[in-house]
């Protein structure tokens, strides 16, 4: 009842009475006035009662459709009048995510609006409150069909031919632009993929390099230790030398002299032995001759005694046999030192103490059970001190400083260089691995635009947006640059904007957002931050900048990188893909 009263009021004010003849538009009898082709199926049987679209349990005689009286709670019985427009509570400030051109502005309404056929141009829905309001809305209804009642004597001629022609021209331009933008997007994607691959290849190469560098560092460390050890021992030796060569040195020298003397004596004795052997052999020969040649008939007692003595001597076998091997040994022993067979004194003099022995003496007590350790430590310390005093052990407490030795310096430099190269390679690897994990937007396409900057002057400032880096503002009059945020990540935002005629805007649909946070602090406010909302465009450009709250900015930016991000029919104008709009031409 309430519905009927309100509509009656409207009718009185309009001084018009809708008749059953108004149910259908004059030019097309296939569906009632204001019904779009998508909803034609609900209005197909004029001989049967009409069931409200969203509330099919409520039905009315078909003659009540478009009778300028609102019967259905969803307004579906008045597709061609404004009778149900009071149901329309559209709040443009709060567009619903996922809404599209066919979504009624109010959930309770079944139809998106009055359908303008716009022959010669593109069909469109106009809001019900604009139907028969006495104003020609050619921008939506170029055929003037929304003012079919002629309220207040208004007559809206059909302008679709000229508007359609202009639109087609701009549409062709737009399509060309879209073609170019799509091509650019493909190029950007190609470049982004190439850069990603490059990072992957770099990671592989760095991993191999790191393996090599790790080996190099290890080798250089070992080499440094070895050189330091050698240099330390050399320092101890020369220290010992400086102190008069120490006991070991003295012992070594004494041994050398003594061995020399013994060798001399041995050689001399051996020669004397050989001479004596020769002389004995000669004497034995003489005596053998005497024994064989003497005349036993001469009773020469002296000769007989000598022969008897010789026979006794020859009968006695010598127990002291001198073997050939022993003789060869004697020859070897008698050879001069520093030859192949003799003692190589110079080798002993040059040879260093094995550090492991020294280390073992230092840590001798650690090999013992704890109770023995303290008992022994005193004795070991004095032994150690004695060895140190004599230069046999390096003084660990004094730490022999070999840092300045050229050999140590060299080895340390090699090690440091290798370590530095390794650290650099490890940092590169870490950075590249993190880079591969990083979000570079849909399809990773913004890898190709990273650090590309676009600028625009607006009001007192020149603004800049550097993709995935930061946003800035700089006073045109001069002064420093202020960071309005550093890149923090991506988001998707539903945008419900009408596109401006030049297409430089966001339009309608889900849009990619780049968030920039933690910019320069704002006096008496937050750290500056910017939301950069992206729309498809042939070139990278800033459309507009707004400071919605103090130091909270919103930039609308066009870029080919987001073209085709959302190719849905509800996208409006701008760079939407071909065929997105149905044309009833
Ligand atoms: C500067 C600019 C402005 C901002 C004020 C806040 O002038 O960053 O955008 O509103 O500081 O003090």
The hetero molecules present are: alpha-D-mannopyranose
Q: Count of helices? A: 9
Pick out the low-confidence regions. 1-28, 89-99, 352-356, 568-585
Across the major sheet, the strand order is: 5-6-7-8-9-10-12-11
Shape: rod-shaped
Q: Helix proportion of residues, in percent? A: 40-55%
Largest sheet: 8 strands, mixed
Per DSSP E runs of 2 or more residues, the count of β-strands stands at 12
Pfam family, one: PRKCSH-like
Keywords: Coiled coil, Disulfide bond, Endoplasmic reticulum, Signal
Domain MRH: 451-565
Coiled coil: 196-230
Structural notes for this entry:
The chain has helices spanning 2-14, 160-242, 246-293, 301-315, 324-333, 345-350, 355-362, 370-389, 406-437; strands at 50-51, 59-60, 114-116, 124-126, 453-458, 461-466, 470-475, 482-496, 508-517, 529-536, 541-549, 552-559. The protein is an alpha+beta fold and 585 residues long. The longest helix is centred in the middle third of the chain and has 83 residues, at 160-242. The strands form 3 sheets. An 8-stranded mixed beta sheet has the order 5-6-7-8-9-10-12-11, with no helix packed on it. Strands 1-2 form a two-stranded antiparallel sheet. Among the domains are: 1-158, no CATH class; 246-354; 442-571, Cation-dependent Mannose-6-phosphate Receptor, Chain A (Distorted Sandwich). Bound molecules: alpha-D-mannopyranose. Alpha-D-mannopyranose is lined by residues 473, 482, 522-523, 547, 550-551. Alpha-D-mannopyranose binds next to loops.
Summary of the model, kept short:
This protein has 585 residues and is an alpha+beta fold. The chain has 9 helices and 12 strands.
């Amino acid at each position: 009842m309430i519905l009927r009263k309100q509509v009656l009021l409207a009718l009185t004010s309009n001084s018009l009475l809708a008749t059953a003849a108004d149910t259908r538009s004059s030019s097309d009898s296939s569906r009632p006035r204001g019904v779009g082709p998508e909803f034609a199926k609900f209005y197909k049987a004029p001989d049967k009662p009409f069931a409200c679209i969203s509330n099919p349990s409520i039905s009315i005689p078909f003659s009540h459709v478009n009778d300028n009286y609102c019967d259905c709670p969803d307004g579906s019985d008045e597709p061609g009048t404004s009778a149900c427009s009071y149901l329309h509570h559209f709040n443009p400030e709060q567009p619903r995510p996922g809404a599209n051109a066919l979504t009624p502005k109010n959930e309770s309404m079944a139809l998106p609006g009055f359908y303008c056929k716009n022959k010669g141009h593109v069909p469109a829905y106009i809001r019900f409150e604009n139907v028969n309001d006495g104003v020609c809305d050619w921008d939506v209804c170029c055929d003037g069909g929304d003012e079919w009642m002629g309220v207040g004597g208004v007559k809206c001629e059909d302008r679709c031919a000229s508007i359609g022609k202009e639109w087609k021209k701009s549409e062709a331009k737009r399509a060309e632009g879209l073609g170019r933008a799509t091509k650019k997007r493909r190029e950007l994607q190609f470049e982004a993929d190439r850069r990603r691959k490059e990072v992957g290849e770099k990671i592989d190469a760095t991993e191999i390099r790191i393996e090599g560098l790790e080996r190099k560092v290890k080798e250089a460390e070992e080499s440094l230790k070895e050189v330091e050890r050698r240099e330390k021992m050399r320092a101890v030796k020369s220290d010992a030398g400086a102190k008069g060569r120490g006991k070991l040195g003295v012992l070594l020298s004494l041994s050398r002299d003594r061995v020399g003397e013994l060798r001399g004596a041995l050689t001399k004795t051996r020669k004397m032995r050989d001479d004596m052997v020769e002389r004995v052999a000669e004497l034995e020969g003489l005596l053998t001759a005497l024994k064989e040649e003497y005349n036993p008939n001469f009773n020469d007692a002296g000769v007989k005694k000598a022969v008897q003595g010789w026979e006794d001597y020859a009968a006695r076998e010598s127990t002291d046999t001198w073997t050939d091997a022993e003789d060869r040994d004697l020859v070897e022993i008698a050879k001069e030192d520093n030859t192949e067979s003799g003692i190589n004194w110079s080798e002993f003099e040059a040879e260093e103490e094995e550090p492991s022995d020294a280390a073992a003496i230092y840590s001798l007590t650690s090999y013992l059970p704890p109770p023995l350790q303290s008992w022994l430590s005193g004795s070991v310390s004095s032994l150690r001190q004695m060895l140190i005093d004599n230069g046999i052990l390096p003084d660990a407490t004094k730490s022999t400083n070999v840092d300045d030795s050229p050999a140590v310096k060299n080895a340390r430099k090699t090690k440091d260089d290798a370590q530095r190269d390794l650290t650099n390679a490890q940092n590169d690897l870490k950075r590249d691995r993190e880079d591969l994990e990083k979000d570079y937007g849909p399809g990773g396409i913004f890898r190709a635009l990273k650090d590309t900057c676009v600028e625009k002057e607006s009001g007192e400032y020149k603004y800049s947006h550097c993709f995935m880096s930061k946003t800035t503002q700089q006073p045109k009059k001069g002064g420093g640059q202020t960071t309005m945020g550093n890149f923090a990540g991506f988001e998707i935002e539903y945008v419900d904007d009408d596109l401006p005629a030049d297409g430089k805007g966001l339009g309608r649909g889900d849009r990619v957002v780049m968030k920039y946070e933690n910019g320069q602090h704002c006096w008496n406010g937050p750290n500056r931050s910017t939301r950069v909302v992206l729309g498809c465009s042939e070139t990278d450009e800033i459309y507009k900048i707004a400071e919605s709250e103090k130091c909270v900015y919103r930039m609308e930016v066009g870029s080919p990188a987001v073209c085709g991000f959302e190719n849905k029919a509800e996208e409006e104008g701008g760079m939407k893909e071909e065929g997105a709009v149905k044309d009833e031409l």
